[in-house]
């Protein structure tokens, strides 16, 4: 939801240049049509890693909010994103597992990031949406969004948790890294964000404006992981009723609506017909495994996430707005850069009700655990038939076959950062296993009456 509300802000700070198919690209070369699915997944995971490894902010080594190949906005050069950096931590683990980067170098970098976060601004334990990578000071995300952001903190924290789990039984240096990550996550004051004990979490708190943003975190959207982590905290926890009264609205977020014969199961905030932008099924599920996961209201979270992806796929196949290119090999709508009517670059929370002919590759590619065949079709199409849509860090953030193969040679951390982790969850379940087997997470899920057939959580 915050991504949607931030569209105006982000559009305002974007510059109005754009690229077309005739423009110069970096590393854009046609991939052989004989490339295997395994090779394709390796390729895009390696490419996506570059965003957080090669293009990281040089002082903090965290993920920049955005990276532009045409030029980098001077006023954003050192702005780092906390949530996107959490995705980046998980991407780096994938890089280690796949042999893309040396383990020892990764440990050194992750330790540096942990040290930066320990000294950076925190607001009752929560980090802001944006930080200055040089100073660690809060960078305002909006007029009143100038303090703690508990949702972005959750996206960062799931990364801290999986890094801790990955290295906790390693050598002395790795154990020291795990301890740093453990201390960081235990410092988040989740219960402060109930605004004095209300049975709901609030998104923001500001040392200047207090609770003036007044944004309750209620489902269904991308924020589920916030409640899971808050309930799992051994230091500042929330109780089960805060989750059920807050996120699920006492079950009021359930729906009997279907689309293309597929049950939506829950009401997507402001998007009840087709479901919201596809990132709603990515951000919480980078670490939280939906397979066989249930709570008091949802019988299997995997049905929820898969159906949302399939509805988007079938929407593109149906193609009611008749956009050129839409179909089995080219689908996926999510919040991303976009094309304005005048051809300039903007930002939009794309979904079937907000569809302007722009496809964000991350939408389908990061849905691979839910729709492997359909997602691989998109990945293959992009790399073998649309090399102009591929840059130095993988598929560009926004593309359009309809507008004469328009694209913008730009990346956003929160979009690029879901690609390698979600593909790895499809391939090996790496991040899911690390998170779901963490003792605090098991206890938190049990507190919330979650069950998992896959992880024997009863």
Automatic annotation (TrEMBL):
What are the residue boundaries of the Glycoamylase-like domain, all occurrences included?
Answer: 214-438
Give the top-rank taxon of the lineage listed in the UniProt record for this protein.
Answer: Bacteria
Q: Which PROSITE patterns match?
A: PROKAR_LIPOPROTEIN
Q: Where is the secretion signal located? A: 1-21
User: Keyword set for this entry?
Assistant: Signal
Name of the protein: Beta-glucosidase
Organism annotation: Chryseobacterium taklimakanense
* Lineage, opening ranks: Bacteria, Pseudomonadati, Bacteroidota, Flavobacteriia, Flavobacteriales
């Amino acid at each position: 939801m915050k991504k949607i509300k931030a569209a105006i802000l982000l559009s305002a700070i974007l510059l109005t240049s754009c690229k077309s198919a005739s423009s110069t690209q970096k590393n854009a070369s046609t991939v052989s049509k004989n490339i295997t699915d395994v090779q394709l997944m390796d390729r895009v995971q390696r490419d996506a890693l570059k965003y957080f490894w090669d293009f990281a902010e040089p002082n903090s080594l965290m993920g920049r909010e955005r990276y532009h190949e045409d030029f980098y906005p001077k006023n954003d050069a050192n702005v780092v994103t906390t949530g996107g950096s959490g995705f980046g931590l998980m991407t780096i683990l994938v890089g280690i597992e796949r042999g893309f980067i040396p383990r020892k170098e990764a440990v050194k970098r992750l330790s540096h990031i942990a040290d930066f976060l320990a000294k950076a601004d925190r607001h009752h334990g929560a980090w802001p949406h944006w930080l200055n990578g040089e100073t660690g000071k809060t960078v305002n995300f909006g007029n009143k969004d100038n303090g703690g952001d508990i949702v972005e903190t959750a996206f960062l924290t799931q990364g801290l948790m999986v890094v801790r789990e990955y290295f906790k039984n390693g050598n002395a240096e790795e154990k020291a890294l795990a301890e740093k990550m453990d201390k960081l996550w235990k410092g988040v004051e989740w219960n402060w964000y109930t605004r004095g004990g209300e049975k709901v979490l609030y998104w923001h708190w500001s040392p200047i404006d207090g609770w003036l943003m007044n944004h309750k975190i209620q489902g269904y959207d991308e924020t589920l992981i916030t409640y899971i982590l808050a309930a799992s905290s051994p230091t500042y926890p929330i109780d089960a009723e805060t989750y059920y009264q807050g996120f699920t609205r006492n079950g009021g977020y359930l729906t009997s609506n279907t689309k293309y014969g597929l049950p939506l199961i829950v009401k997507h905030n402001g998007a009840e017909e087709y479901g919201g932008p596809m990132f709603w099924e990515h951000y919480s599920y980078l670490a939280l495994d939906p397979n066989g996961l249930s709570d008091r209201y949802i019988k299997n979270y995997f049905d929820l996430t898969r159906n949302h992806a399939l509805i988007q796929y079938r929407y593109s196949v149906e193609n009611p707005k008749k956009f050129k290119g839409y179909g089995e090999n080219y689908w996926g709508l999510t919040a991303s850069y976009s094309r304005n009517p005048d051809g300039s670059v903007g930002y939009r929370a794309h979904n079937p009700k907000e569809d302007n002919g722009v496809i964000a590759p991350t939408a389908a590619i990061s849905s691979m655990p839910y729709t492997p065949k359909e997602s691989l079709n998109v990945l293959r199409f992009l790399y073998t038939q649309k090399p102009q849509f591929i840059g130095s860090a993988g598929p560009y953030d926004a593309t359009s076959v309809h507008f004469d193969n328009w694209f913008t040679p730009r990346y956003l951390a929160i979009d690029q950062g879901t690609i390698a982790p979600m593909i790895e969850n499809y391939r090996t379940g790496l991040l899911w296993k690390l998170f779901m087997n963490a003792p605090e997470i098991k206890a938190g899920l049990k507190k919330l009456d979650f069950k998992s057939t896959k992880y024997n959580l009863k």
